[in-house]
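Researcher: Next sequence.
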Amino acid sequence: MDAFKLMKELRVNREQEAQYLPKETGLSFIESTVQGDSRISAKARDAKVEDLWSLTSFFGYTTQTFVLAVNLLDRFLALMRIQPKHLSCVSLSCLSMAAKVTEEACNLTSTDELIRIGQCRFTVSDLERMEKIVAEKLNFKSKAITALTFLHLCHRIARSHSTDRKEALKLEKLEAQLKACLCRISFSKAKPSVLALSLLMQEAEAVQSDDMLEVAYRIQTHLKIADGELLQWSKCVALCLSDYASPECSKPNHRKLQWIVSRRTAQSLHSARSVPELPTIPEGCWDESESEDSCEDVMSSGEESLSSSLGSDAEGPFFPLHLRRQKHVHA
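Model: Next structure:
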């Protein structure tokens, strides 16, 4: 009966997942943008997602928070034409929004601290206004159906049916591999259900579990996922994970964030810190006379990327002992 309910929940989520997908035309526009252009490029987007990975790991946030933040970010970027100088504020606002709906209140980091640790040059007021803008444009309430939604359901189903090597099917490992995939914008075009099933099948093949493969095929049939579509994204997942496992990867400098929040440094920064003289987001930052997907020049940038300090799970046995900043070979 439990398996029946899980399969039914899979079907319901499958029917609703399209509502939470970024616009593919917007994603394609980002992918076609040349680095250094006045618009967000795929490389800039991917670097910010890596920053979100660093921050969620550092603050002890869940994978759910990270995946939801990335979903909000991609949907917003695919909908709105924003300039690179706004990207830090948008990405951090997505993380803040995601944390508020997925984390316990006692575990939330203050907005001021989030900005400081994120090494961003805008104010709390800027971030709060951006959160309202993102929430309004995406009609965001409190949830989204993501690949993690399906990954958790598929994992529960596989665990309930598999009889061999159960210990090999670790959710933590699957989640870390999902994070790696989400660091590439190309995976934002994949249907969440297909991406999750692709990860499950990769793991089933890796541990050589016939039971798990059989469960994966049953899920595919139940969700009516075409063979061609699943094969396409399975190849993309395999390539991505292979890249992360490459010996060419350089180990990230995870000490970077640790240094920032050492007690002496934190006290020094807190006492010496002043709000930079940058314009805040005006109330009328969205020019309604323009198309829906345009954004006014309301902020400045200059934030240093944290992507050289990926989360600790990026350094674990799930890929790879080493992890480099990808050169973004898109799927």
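Model: The CA atoms of residues 132 and 193 lie 29 Å apart. The first helix runs from residue 2 to 16.
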